[in-house]
Design goal:
alpha+beta, OB fold (Dihydrolipoamide Acetyltransferase, E2P), 9-stranded mixed β-sheet, 19 helices
């Protein structure tokens, strides 16, 4: 192999000059003279480390490496990287291959990092120490992690030959990156080994130290030294007051139970937690005995003068003590564990006990970093939430090796978790045993949200592990449903406080309050760590049955549609023997419409409905929306009371009580009842899916204002553009007396507009009366009404809602007072006759109103309530009703009737025949109509008379909620009489409809009362329904026929007599008439 050329002297000189400048600016005291000795020491240290790899290719200095300061890393290094001064290229490649096929190794940079290793964040010794490690130079400080810390390294200058740097996420401008020191640092100025003590150090071993705690007088004024093998170290517990951890020393030859616990809570000694290694032997000096509040006996603890030293047998001697004095107390028995509200007085048979063990494994996946959930060895789940793992959150990623001491193993926890779970409590320890070579996955902003809320679930709500795992999964489902379009991730998963509750916790609270009622005993860290056997939330658990689910609206809609068609059975809609007497036309008509109502309890687990309430500007209905789509809904504030407050638009709605309604429409050509089970005769099927619920049963959460535009009815493209100039808010109150139907209407074309024939526009009208004049916004309140010229002048008004303004349809109801609000530049006569929104006078005369306004798209409506404007007026005035005598009589002095009724049945009727004046071959087509059979409610009638109501174009499809079993108020229906003198009603453009109650979840049919025919002769009774027994005494005529089920032609001996018959069935049905 040809030798590489020797490096040019100029390049070496330039590298040395750059090194000298870097050392002076970064490592020397600011303003001091150049430190030649320090510079030479740094260069010698770098050179020695560089040459140690043995493959320097003739270069005495790492000329390809450049020095980097802490500030440079934090400012310029925006991508994860690693640097290995003492590694060859082949060594790096072998290390990078550990990332595997699914991981990306950290890219290698050629950087030289030097700094002081310290546990001080600031420059002052009085700075609060938290047990963290830092690398510091003159430019800044970085947190770091080290596998095996030697306490003698603290405060010294080091060269770090092998390290990784992980910067904060790009969206986290205030975050800090951190260092992972992959190998032992190299001291720049090697210090001579400190000589051992001149005389052996007197020590106590664990067995003696444990006995000494129970003797009176032996502990006064004594601060002995303790020596032994480290048996266990607890988690580092941080609280608002102080931080601490507990270590346990044992003897190599002593019994397994002769362990002594030592509490370390001096701030300067918290860094010991990183230096301790179970299985090694240590000496702790200058210990003292204290009684911890809430603990049952005394424990050893360190003093400010204590030190942690490695145990060298030649440097210690055992201290002999006479322990024959009086005992303070015997070892008390462990205190009984207070039973939680979930356990009750007796431990249920289904309660399981976790297994306590130690485990070493490698992290293979991140399930949820904010929740502390990871995958270990591809088979186990690891939950770190029951420890305070803030420092490990940045380090733990796929490829990291962990040693878990005294970790709980829980199997079959349920709640959707199928794999066993490892979960350490405060009693155990999470020890870092190997860093990862993988580049961390790019974490988006929303993926990092919720850590504070998850901690709150564990430390404040005291959730057990099965319920915690389900809660984290439920919050992820909610985030997928609502974020980021309906709600921001940081808003949904924010920490909950008394004045600022978390929406995520509010959505889960009703379920959590049942399974884990608040007020449980809070965790006691000292008791959890010190007591043997210890007691913690992970010790006992019960397999969790998944309490509920939060499906997306698209999933809910699709599942409802699938279940509705799976349950569709024409034979069940037309049971025998009724179906055997129906012709083909009657059969297909009866199966053309059906419905199914699904309750949350019919799903396993039960479903909870969550979405943002919106008002559609295209359909005029209310909708629930999430990220997957929207679902129409019919909402009542409570029984017989509609929703009227438009402030609910944009709010987050959660309800456990709702009805998922699926209306099935089928076009079929069944020849007869015998073919009802053959799906091939179904030509077309479609379903309308919507939701019904009471607002009183729902949890309503306001959504922050900047996000309300996503729930309003206006799309971003349709949002009005307000003109320039000063803007004010003007409003006017009106009392609504009547609302007409929502339908497509024609409107006059204003002069100068496009001469093309306009298409019908979805619209509705309301009529009412102005209450006072126009008001202007003054601060946060409305100013006084503008005076009117003639107070006695008729104040009736007709408001036209068309286009996007139809979104207010579901909130407007007779008898309520509303405020019409317009924002924009000051406009005189905005709500007056002759204003820019008024229509010509001729339509006003037809409507009987003094003024008429077209509600603009950008105007809003608010419900007005207060002592001057009661929310609901007299019900008899708000919802007028026609008397039963006028409704059922043949008197047609008033053809518009109003009443409340219960829907008994709903059927799809045959299309109405075309009028005789319609031209043959015209474009007008006749569509089917819907017939509602209702039972009219009347206070003075025991039995409710039945009435048919027909709905036809342009009122099709019918409004939501017209289902059998529902109670509905019908206003201004047109009363008609058939040729057989039967009264029926039809929908008109002026018809007002209000659903009063939903169909009952369970239907109980009450039998009709039985009467005698003699009671009918008494007369004077209102119409009613009943059953009677009687004898037929005379028959005037009787006709029995067998007809073809398809064409209704006579069918003697089972054969259709129609000439040229091509009927698809040979089935005949019997028909009879008797008089």
């Amino acid at each position: 192999m040809e030798a590489n050329p020797a490096p040019a002297p100029d390049s070496e000189q330039a590298w040395l000059e750059a090194a000298q400048t870097f050392i002076q600016e970064t490592l020397c005291l600011p303003g001091s003279e150049p430190d030649v000795q320090l510079t030479q020491s740094v260069i010698d240290c770098v050179k020695t480390t560089w040459l140690s790899q043995g493959k320097n290719q003739g270069f005495p200095l790492p000329l390809s490496y450049s020095f980097v300061s802490v500030q440079d890393l934090k400012t310029h290094q925006n991508l994860p990287c690693c640097s290995h001064l003492s590694w060859s290229s082949s060594a790096y490649q072998a290390w990078a291959q550990e990332a595997g096929p699914n991981g990306t190794p950290l890219p290698r940079e050629r950087l030289l990092l030097l700094g002081t290793l310290t546990d001080l964040l600031g420059d002052l010794e009085q700075e609060c120490r938290k047990g963290d490690l830092y690398v510091r130079d003159n430019t800044g400080v970085l947190t770091c992690e080290l596998l095996d810390l030697d306490l003698s390294w603290l405060g010294h200058l080091f060269l770090f030959p092998s390290w990784s740097y992980l910067p904060p996420a790009r969206w986290n401008s205030s975050g800090e990156g951190h260092l992972e020191l992959l190998s032992a640092p190299v001291p720049v100025c090697p210090s001579t080994a400190s000589p051992g003590p001149p005389t052996p150090l007197p020590v106590l071993y664990p067995e003696t130290a444990s006995r000494l705690l129970r003797h009176r007088g032996k502990l006064r004024g004594v601060q002995p030294n303790l020596a032994g093998k480290l048996a266990r170290v607890s988690a580092l517990v941080r609280s608002q007051k102080k931080a601490h951890f507990v270590l346990s020393l044992g003897g190599g030859s002593s019994p397994a139970g002769s362990h002594v616990s030592i509490v370390v809570q001096i701030p300067a000694q918290l860094v010991w937690h990183r230096a301790l290694w179970p299985g090694r032997s240590y000496v702790l000096t200058a210990l003292r005995v204290v009684r911890i509040r809430g603990h049952c006996y005394r424990v050893w603890t360190t003093s400010p003068s204590s030190h942690l030293l490695p145990l060298k047998p030649e440097c210690v001697r055992e201290l002999e003590l006479e322990l024959d004095g009086p005992l303070l107390e015997a070892d008390p028995a462990p205190l009984p564990v207070p039973s939680s509200s979930q356990d009750g007085d007796r431990e249920p048979a289904l309660v399981r006990h976790s297994t306590l063990l130690s485990y070493t494994g490698k992290v293979t996946g991140v399930l949820s970093q904010p929740a502390g959930l990871y995958e270990v060895d591809g088979q186990l789940a690891l939950c770190l939430a029951y420890q305070q793992f803030h420092s490990l959150r940045k380090v733990v990623r796929p490829g990291v090796s962990l040693e878990l001491q005294d970790v709980h193993l829980l199997q079959s926890v349920g709640g959707g978790t199928r794999r066993p779970v490892l979960a350490p409590c405060l009693h155990g320890a999470i020890l870092l045993r190997g860093f990862s070579c993988q580049k961390p996955e790019t974490q988006s902003f929303y993926q990092a949200q919720g850590a504070s809320l998850f901690e709150q679930l564990v430390w404040e709500r005291q959730l057990g592990l099965p319920l915690y795992l389900w809660a984290t999964r439920a919050l992820e489902e909610l985030a997928c449903k609502l974020c980021p379009h309906m709600l921001r991730h940081h808003q949904l998963l924010q920490h909950s406080s008394p004045g600022n509750p978390s929406p995520g916790l509010q959505l889960l609270a009703p379920v959590l309050d049942v399974l884990a009622p608040p007020g449980s005993t809070r965790r006691n860290a000292h008791k959890e760590i010190l007591e043997e056997p210890h007691h913690c939330p992970l010790q006992k658990y019960t397999r969790l049955q998944t309490p509920c689910s939060f499906p997306t609206l698209a999933t809910l809609k699709e599942e409802g549609r699938c279940r509705a068609w799976a349950a569709f059975d024409p034979k069940s809609l037309l049971p025998l023997p009724e179906s055997s007497h129906l012709t083909s036309c009657q059969l297909n008509q009866r199966v053309s419409w059906s419905w199914l109502s699904l309750l949350p309890a019919t799903s396993h687990p039960a479903q909870i409905l969550i979405g943002v309430l919106a008002a559609s500007s295209h359909k005029g209905c209310l909708q629930l929306r999430d990220k997957s789509g929207s679902l129409p809904c019919l909402i009542l504030a409570k029984h017989s009371q509609p929703i009227t407050d438009s402030r609910f638009i944009g709010c987050l709605v959660r309800t456990e009580k709702f009805q998922l309604v699926i209306e099935r429409n089928v076009r079929s050509n069944f020849p007869s009842y015998k073919e009802l089970n053959m799906t091939g005769f179904i030509q077309k099927q479609q379903a309308r899916v919507y939701i019904q619920f009471f607002l009183a049963d729902a949890l309503i959460l306001p959504v922050p204002r900047p996000l309300l535009h996503s729930a309003t009815s206006l799309t971003p493209q349709a949002e009005p553009i307000l003109p320039d100039g000063p803007h004010i808010e003007q409003s006017r109150l009106f009392l609504l007396s009547h609302k007409e139907a929502l339908m497509k209407r024609n409107f006059c074309v204003p002069p100068g507009a496009n001469p093309e024939v306009p298409k019908p526009i979805l619209s509705f009208h309301v009529s009412g009366s102005w209450l006072g004049g126009t008001q202007r916004k003054e601060g946060t309140a409305w100013g006084p009404p503008e005076p009117k010229g003639d107070e006695n002048k008729d104040q009736k008004v007709l408001l036209i809602f068309r286009g996007p303004s139809v979104r207010w349809f579901e909130f407007l109801h007779p008898g309520y007072v509303y405020r019409l609000v317009a924002s924009g530049p000051p406009t005189p006569l905005l709500f007056e006759q002759g204003g820019p929104s008024c229509i010509p006078q001729h339509p006003l005369e037809l409507a009987g109103c003094a003024s008429c306004l077209t509600v603009q798209d950008e105007w809003t409506l608010e419900l007005e309530s207060g002592p001057d404007f009661p929310a609901v007026l007299d019900a008899s005035k708000a919802l007028p009703k026609t008397s039963l005598d006028d409704l059922l009589s043949g008197n047609f002095t008033d053809t518009l009737v109003s009443f409340s009724a219960e829907i008994l049945s709903r059927t799809l009727c045959e299309p109405f025949p075309a009028p005789f004046w319609a031209k043959p071959g015209g474009t007008r087509t006749s569509r089917a109509s819907v017939k509602l059979t209702v039972a009219v409610e009347a206070a003075d009638c025991l039995s409710r008379p039945h009435l048919d109501i027909y709905i036809k174009e342009p009122h099709l499809p019918p409004p939501l909620g017209l289902l059998p079993g529902a109670r509905v108020y019908f206003g201004q229906l047109e009363k008609k009489m058939s040729r057989s003198h039967n009264i029926y009603c039809c929908f008109q453009p002026s018809t007002y409809l209000q659903v009063l109650s939903f169909p009952p979840e369970t239907t109980i049919s009450a039998p009709l009362p039985h009467i005698f025919l003699a009671e009918l002769l008494q007369g004077g009774r209102a119409p009613f329904q009943a059953s009677a027994s009687c004898h037929i005494v005379s028959v005037f005529s009787l006709q029995l026929l067998w007809v073809c089920a398809h064409c209704t032609s006579l069918c003697p001996q089972g054969r259709c007599t129609r000439q040229g018959s091509t009927c698809p069935t040979q089935t005949s049905v019997s028909q009879a008439s008797i008089r």
